Amino acid sequence: MSIGSEQSYRYENGRQYYDNKSVTYVLPSDEEESKRVSKQHLLLKAGFGGNYDAPVREALEKGIFVLDAGCGPAAWTAEMAKDYPNSTFHGVDIAPRCLTTPPSNCHFHTKNLVEEKPFPDNHLDYIHQRLLVLGLLEANWDKVIAQHMKMLKPGGWIELVEVTFRVLENGGPKATKLMHAVEKVGGDKGLNMEIPFQLEERLKKAGAVNISLRMATTPINHGGEIGDICWEDFYEAFYAMQALIAQVHPEMGDADFFKSFLLECKEECRESKTSLQWYRCIGQKPLDINE
């Protein structure tokens, strides 16, 4: 195992965060965060109308090898493993936050994708990775995507999913202020906050073909149950990033002020019909590796 199995942590306001120079993920790493990300899975499935876009359904039904890179609490991995029992799913993450009782065709590995290639070349049929915009430095994006392409078998598919902090659909000033604060701090830390808009270009650079990109939205605090879940996700994520936001807007460092501001955002999102924008990009490793 790599450094992911020997993580050190720091604690702020009762939350656990990574405290290791090799890990750039800015959100917490604790049970509360795992629950948030698991609920977030419902948003993405609803927004895109399914768990994946890559044309792999028939292959999944027959049985293939799948990697969920940066799987977190593994909501996607476990659901896919249950839906496709003939396929084998491997989840990789920097810390063991995965399910304690996964499906029998679901396996987890604690590794740092930046430091260690988890599988040999030409080994996997499908690689899924999502929401590492706050977890991968700009300097590592091309390296990780190239590594994924090497692990894919010729003809295999890669699927990348990200969210933008630059743009909110119908975003009001308060919600936009929070998004742009995280975008600024992330950029200052060396994260690539523009990666949602670069996915096609990055896959092409890595040698992928048959590339396509799709954008989906999820409503924040309007539109029914999904809007309610999206607000909970928005609130919990930004509440956990209070210290980061206060680096840009010092007044946000006051706990009471920040809670009030978030509740004002909730009403603003309802009135403005604000939505988050997610991007899902797929690409294929050429059947002819010289293509």
UniProtKB/TrEMBL annotation:
Superkingdom to which the source organism belongs: Eukaryota
Q: Which residues form the Methyltransferase domain?
A: 66-156
Sample GO molecular function, one term: methyltransferase activity
Matching InterPro entries, A to Z? Answer: Methyltransf_25 (IPR041698), SAM-dependent_MTases_sf (IPR029063)
This chain belongs to the protein called Methyltransferase domain-containing protein
Q: Which organism's genome codes for this protein?
A: Lichtheimia ornata
Supply the source organism's classification.
Eukaryota, Fungi, Fungi incertae sedis, Mucoromycota, Mucoromycotina
